[in-house]
Every structure is written in C-alpha cells, then in structure tokens.
C-alpha cells in the first residue's frame, strides 16, 4: 500500500484466500485491505493516538437510512451519550476529494446530525461543522478532551 499523509502505526496484515487483510482494532477482526480501508485504518489510529478518542466510542461501517436508500458510514465517533459526534468519509488515495464527496457526507449529516464532519483520501483531509446550513471549515480536528459531552 502507498504512503499516506497520515502518521504510520503498527498494523497487522495477513493473507486470507490469497488476499491481504488488515486487523481493525474497532471491529476486532481482519478485514479486506483495500485502498479505502488503508486510509480508514490510518485515520482511526490518528484519531485515537493523536486526538485522544477512546476506541469504545467508534463505530465503523455502520448502516443508516437516507430517504429509502441504505448507506454506510466509514467512521463515526459517538459522544459519551451515544450521539454522533464526528462523522468521517474515507476515500482511496487516488480518489480526489471533490464537491461530490462533500455532498455525500452532507447527506449523512442530514440523517445523523453529528457536531463535526470530516473527509479524507489519506492525502488531503478536511474537517468542518455544519451549523444551520452553513459550513465552517476548521484548521484541525477536535481533540477528544476539548469537546463538551
């Protein structure tokens, strides 16, 4: 897998039926190692190691309903009250972050209404708040210790 613009971490990879799998510390199992999964695992570790988020507040690839469509969130961090706090949309490194990416996470925001939203392809990362229909981009991701729960 290619280098990302994210800190490295001690990952575990094994072959299953000739395909690489990476251990997901949130789901506690090996999952198929795709370029998007590579980004997701790096970002999970970034949030835990550098921003202090407890593993117990993460939900990975959880389902949600948007209108009549079934969708999946890449990473959702919950507050201590089990409400969505940070929603992260991950793309493979070769997928550009475009207006369509922001539109996708905005649709999830409509349903889940987290306090913060983030988009990453492992090379570029964006964090913002959507408040009353206004987007407020942030310089950095919120630290776990800094938000009121």
UniProtKB/TrEMBL annotation:
Query: Which organism was this protein described from?
Result: Dyadobacter fermentans (strain ATCC 700827 / DSM 18053 / CIP 107007 / KCTC 52180 / NS114)
Q: What is the name listed in the Swiss-Prot or TrEMBL entry for this protein?
A: Type I restriction enzyme R protein N-terminal domain-containing protein
Pfam families per the UniProt record, alphabetical: HSDR_N_2 (PF13588)
InterPro entries linked: HSDR_N
User: Where do the Type I restriction enzyme R protein N-terminal domain residues begin and end?
Assistant: 35-142
């Amino acid at each position: 897998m290619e280098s990302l613009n994210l800190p490295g971490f001690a990952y575990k990879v094994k072959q299953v039926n000739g395909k690489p799998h990476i251990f997901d510390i949130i789901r506690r199992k090996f999952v198929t190692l795709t370029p998007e999964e590579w980004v997701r695992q790096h970002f999970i570790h970034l949030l835990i190691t550098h921003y202090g988020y407890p593993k117990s507040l993460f939900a990975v690839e959880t389902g949600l309903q948007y209108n009549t469509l079934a969708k999946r969130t890449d990473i959702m961090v919950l507050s201590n009250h089990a409400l969505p706090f940070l929603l992260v949309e991950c793309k493979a490194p070769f997928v550009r972050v475009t207006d369509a990416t922001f539109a996708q996470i905005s649709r999830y925001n409509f349903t889940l209404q987290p306090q913060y939203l983030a988009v990453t392809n492992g090379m570029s990362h964006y964090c913002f708040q959507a408040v009353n229909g206004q987007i407020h981009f942030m310089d950095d991701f919120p630290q776990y210790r800094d938000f009121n729960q």
